[in-house]
């Protein structure tokens, strides 16, 4: 009889809801939060006397949690990730290299040489004969190889 009272009590559901919401900070995945939401709703409904039996509480908890999980999870993920999550798929210049000025540090031989961009050394290709010390402009890139030119794009 004591177990039934503990499970029926609104305090159990409210505490369970808070624990599940807090667990989302330690194991993120945006799943426990919806079960926490379900537990908080059941706790509130039990507190106000809307539902009383253990079976009704468990059923309400399951229904609210699963509906919230499947209906709200996708929307909440969009809010948390923002609209820029797929930017690299849409924009091949995801690093913002095109148009940047670089300095040639190794003479280009057969169209291949080295440049510095933002203080880092990069492999580069160019159809222009570039000499160490000159400046060039990034016109494209293929992965980690920059394509540079004397002419600004």
TrEMBL record:
Single GO cellular component term: plasma membrane
Matching Gene3D superfamilies: Nucleic acid-binding proteins
Membrane-topology annotation of the record: Multi-pass membrane protein
Subcellular location: Membrane
Pfam families found in the cross-reference section: NfeD (PF01957)
Residue stretches making up the NfeD-like C-terminal domain: 96-149
Keyword hit for Transmembrane helix: yes
InterPro entries per UniProt: Membrane_assoc_protease (IPR052165), NA-bd_OB-fold (IPR012340), NfeD-like_C (IPR002810)
Segments passing through the bilayer: 54-72
UniProt entry keywords in alphabetical sequence: Membrane, Transmembrane, Transmembrane helix
Name this protein carries in UniProt: NfeD family protein
UniProt source species: Halopseudomonas laoshanensis
């Amino acid at each position: 009889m004591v177990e039934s009272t503990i499970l029926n009590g609104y305090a159990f559901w409210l505490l369970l809801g808070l624990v599940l919401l807090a667990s989302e900070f330690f194991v993120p995945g945006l799943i426990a939060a919806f079960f926490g939401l379900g537990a908080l709703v059941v706790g509130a409904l039990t507190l106000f006397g809307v539902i009383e039996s253990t079976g009704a509480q468990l059923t309400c908890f399951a229904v609210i949690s699963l509906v919230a999980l499947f209906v709200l999870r996708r929307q909440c993920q969009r809010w948390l990730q923002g609209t820029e999550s797929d930017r690299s798929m849409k924009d091949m210049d995801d690093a913002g290299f095109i148009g940047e000025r670089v300095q040639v540090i190794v003479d280009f031989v057969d169209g291949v040489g080295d440049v510095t961009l933002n203080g880092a050394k990069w492999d580069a290709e160019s159809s222009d004969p570039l000499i160490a010390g000159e400046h060039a402009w990034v016109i494209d890139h293929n992965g980690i190889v920059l394509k540079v030119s004397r002419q600004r794009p």
